User: Fold this.
Amino acid sequence: MEQSEPRARRAAGERNGTRPGSRLPFDDGFVMGVIFYVLIVATIVLASDAQYRFFYGSF
Amino acid sequence: MVRSERRRGDVRVSLFVSAALLLLTDLLLGAWRPGGLRLPSHFSGDYLRSYALEHAAGPGLVVLGDSEMWGYGVAAAASPVAQLERTLGRPVDNLTYEAETPINEDFVLRLLLAHGIRPRAVIVEINSASFNETAVEYDRLNAALAEVALPALLEPFDAGRLDDAQRTHVPTPGERLDRFVAAHWRLYGRRVDLHQALFGDADLAGALFARVHPLLQPNDATGSGRYAAMYDLTPLDRDNVDFAYAGHLFAMLAKHRIPGIVLLPPVNHALLHRYVDNAAYDANRRRVARLAQASGLAVLDLDRLLPSQDFIDNTHLNAAGGDRLARAIAPHVAPYLDVLQ
Assistant:
């Protein structure tokens, strides 16, 4: 028996373990892009030792 | 099949989004003009150059000096330079930074002149502690200043004076790559400035250092003992690198007809009595004064201006001390106000 489209989508959501309506309002790729960006900025800004050149040795 | 295509699509979207955000960040950083009342504690070479050129090109009185004028321990608005600006009611451009010794002041002025900027009038603060040969900043430039000043601004005068590790330094391939990336990617080049803008000095390394340092040197951690080796009372002459650079700086001001006041700033004599209340300390101050006067500069000796309660340590002032210092300087700046219109 052929399912109607909403029912098919609901069924797919149940199979994937997600409930319809709990998805993020963004595409997964967009969210991952933002996460990559935050990681890159955080790594560069927080993991740099450049600000310690003056007081902590190599000045 | 459908899932792998979807995944490829997601990867393309995520790469595009992160690249777009990084590009946007660089555009915003390009539009970011260093402002504020003073330089932060740490800054990149690019930030220093932008800040110095933008401020010194204005109509204001330029102040060169170290942490005492910069306002160590107080908010930027309570620093002596900010209070001087309020007292005068005229723009005062704060080109001070922590440990800006005479060798650093000399190169900051060279940097301005090399960019065609001639300050209208200058206050040069010369701290007696600058002449201490054991201080790390005695014969070295701030790392950010070295980035923008070396080797382009070197003169024969620097040979044998500026630390050889800086003067003759040949960048390693790693350093060249670092400079290349910093020059073409603002997020990377301005990472120190971003760190300062976001977190200031409140970082883990600073907190640890403040806790651990007194444990390593318990006898010197409190009282005047920690300043025992700070004031070198050897008679100053041209063999002292910072005395030589002070002379070079004064001569440069005279050569370019930049009116200037050399400020010998207040010192906490009650705290430092054992080290500075003696004839050798006074004689060295007179030597600096004569050096400035030989180049036609005015000298303002405020060494004993303030009582102990105006200090937070040996030389740094609280807000009330900064206010008193600003009020003491202001009348001496009056003769130069006509060139600051």
In short: Residues 35-340 of chain B form a domain with the Rossmann fold fold (CATH 3.40.50.1110). The two ends of chain B are 74 Å apart (CA to CA).
